[in-house]
Amino acid sequence: MTGIEANSGFLALALPFLAAALAPVLTRFLKQHSCWVLALAPAFAFLIFLGALPEVAGGNVFLFGLDWIPSFDVRFSFRLDGLSSTFALLITGIGTLIILYSGGYLAGHRDQGRFLSFMLMFMGAMLGLVMSDDLMTLIVYWELTSITSFLLIGFDHERGAARRGAIQALVITGGGGLALMAGLIAIRELTGLTSLSEVLAAGDALREGSFYVPILILVLAGAFTKSAQMPFHVWLPNAMEAPTPVSAYLHSATMVKAGVYLLLRLHPALGDTALWTTILPLFGAVTLVVGALLAVRATDIKITLAYTTVASLGLLVMLIGVGTETAIIGAVLYLIAHSLFKGGLFMVAGSVDHGAHTREIDHLGGLGRAMPITFAAALLCALSMGGITPFVGFLAKEEIYHALEYGDPYHVALICAAIAGNALMFAAAFIVALKPFIGRMPETIHHPHEGAPTIWLGPLVLGVCGLVGGLFYGAYHALFSSPMASAAFGEPVAIEIGWMPHLNLAFVLSLATIALGVVIYLLSERLRAALTALLAAIGWGPDHGFDQAMRGLIRGAFAITNFLQSGRLDYYMTATVAVMTAALFGAMAYTGGWPAMPEFPQVTYYEWIVLALLLCGLFAVVVAKNRLTAIVSLGIQGFAVALIFMLMGAPDLSFTQFMVETLSVVILALAITRLKLSPTDHRPTREKLPDAALAAAAGAGFGLFLLAVVQRPFDSVLSDFFERYSYAIAHGRNIVNVILVDFRGIDTMGEIAVVMTTGLGVLALIRVRVKRRNPRPADPMEVTP
């Protein structure tokens, strides 16, 4: 994009964040009606992307951005093509409906403004993620989705389950995000490719490189954790502790699709290898079947839908792993269809909970008469999820079976997994869409009612979109699915499948899926009981394993902290000096930088006096009988160094050293007078010798290091710089003072602040100790005001 187009792109990216900043204020004044104003932000962004759709559908790719960190070749850049355009339309379009839905669902909630702010920030993060072109920009938005989803899942932070779900989501997806960051940095450093555009244009550069395997593993770790592949799927059902608008948005168009988006985006660069076509279908197929089984086993509507999302993500990953043109088409068609029907079904779940005050399927029934609009929306979405023509779900399911209709064992196994998973999800869809609305209403439900228009509008619109997309499949493919599949496959792709069935193997498999789904629906209670018994027999699972891992992490951190932070100052000092000594000798040994032993210099009599003063001070410290004497004797060393500075013609340094040494001794002595001063060291000689040896080694290491430094040729660049500019810039002739006050003035101010803070801390400790030990006797004549 250039000119006004680039400005429009930045505006679309910024609108959700601007609305997030305004949400608390608007909600305070407009209450639940603020959702109508806030929904204008994603709606306007949707119109911006919709305006660019014809050119994107024509094959154009728009790039826009600005320099961020030029020295590291990092740009704040974005890419709008068929893949990112469809995702952007889903994010902003469904996001508009979700904001309206949130206003009705959380009407009167005390923290509605905070919730809407978090939701809009999450929307902006996801929008930036799917449009990012620079690899570092992608990492920033990727992590931002993890942070904002943490805030949304833990929104009801007073409940322990919500806090646990938020932490679990953050740990799993955040850990995967770190792996992805390592993978993208490896791509930058090993190939010099800094953007997705360059990666896609590089062809086989990544596949043929020796670093392909570690990069693939790191990227898959990020994608699998974000898109809830087994065994990382556990965070997704537990994220249902979030309010229903979060679940509807998170499962339809946003966070859980981030990993799938990444795999689709990088398929032209990383796909079509033996590892790709093995790992992705294996994880995807297992996730599909297990997720679908757990969906039928659940009794909470939201949990049922959550596990069908896990299964759907597994199906998408499996298809991307197969990697053929037809498989990518099937993945694209199913992704769009899933976004529509899953967002609608989650909003239906919230509407049922809002109207009947329960989400337990066993406690629901007969709501269709009291909630006809919600029932209609549920049926529309369930028909699409079940793959019934003429809905877009039918187009997706047909293309999935076309992609897998090969006779080799590999594809036969995958098609069996697809049939089993789709049949189970068919049953789960109608369990959610039929059982709460038909039959007899339980006596426990009192006064069920249809929600406000903002509650039923979203699922109804999404259900109708699933029907319209299937009926007008020509325009649907031209504008959405074909450009998206072309970008994901890396070559132009034309999709022609329509809603009219054709008698072929795919249609036969589709009919078999529906028949099996009906059987599972009718036997769902028996199957649920069997699965519950099986899981009880297995016992341990990834969710329990996460708790064990977190407990182990905390215990390990506690043990390491206790070992490293024992509370003994002598341990800390010993460890610090030992590491420092090892670093000095190790560096010189590794580089061969041992200094040459200098000849003994000519020493004047006054230098002998200073040397004798140093030795006397050292002897006084060692033989001191109490700590106060040792501290005062320690100051002799500093005074001797100050004398050396004075004799060498640096009176300013000498004066500074005298002041610092005096202040240090006074403060230390003042503080230590509140401690027991005698004896200095009651240990036997055998325990003192190791410390003495370590001290001698440290002194020798510093001495050798300084000898090595002074034997190197003198580099006068800094000296010449300060000599040249001290007066010209800072107008000072004392170079040392100019360096301290001007060139490193901020550092000097920081040092002053540290000394002042330390002094205040010492003073406070002394006053507290004096007050505790020597309380002032009460004066009977004193009158307390």
Automatic annotation (TrEMBL):
Organism: Aurantimonas manganoxydans (strain ATCC BAA-1229 / DSM 21871 / SI85-9A1)
One cellular-component annotation, GO: plasma membrane
Subcellular location: Cell membrane; Membrane
Annotated MrpA C-terminal/MbhD domain residues: 612-676
Residue intervals of the NADH:quinone oxidoreductase/Mrp antiporter transmembrane domain: 132-415
GO terms of biological process kind: monoatomic ion transport
Protein name stated in the entry: Putative NADH, ubiquinone oxidoreductase
Coiled coil: none
Membrane-related topology note: Multi-pass membrane protein
Ranges where the MrpA C-terminal/MbhE domain occurs: 689-767
Molecular function GO labels: antiporter activity
First-listed, main subcellular location of the protein, grouped into a coarse class: membrane
Keywords: Antiport, Cell membrane, Ion transport, Membrane, Transmembrane, Transmembrane helix, Transport, Ubiquinone
Transmembrane regions listed in the UniProt entry: 6-26, 38-66, 86-108, 115-132, 167-187, 209-225, 276-296, 303-322, 328-349, 370-392, 412-434, 455-479, 499-523, 571-593, 605-624, 631-649, 655-672, 692-710, 748-766
NADH-Ubiquinone oxidoreductase (complex I) chain 5 N-terminal domain boundaries: 69-115
InterPro entries, per database record: CPA3_Na-H_Antiporter_A (IPR050616), MrpA_C/MbhD (IPR025383), MrpA_C/MbhE (IPR046806), ND/Mrp_TM (IPR001750), Nuo/plastoQ_OxRdtase_6_NuoJ (IPR042106), Proton_antipo_N (IPR001516)
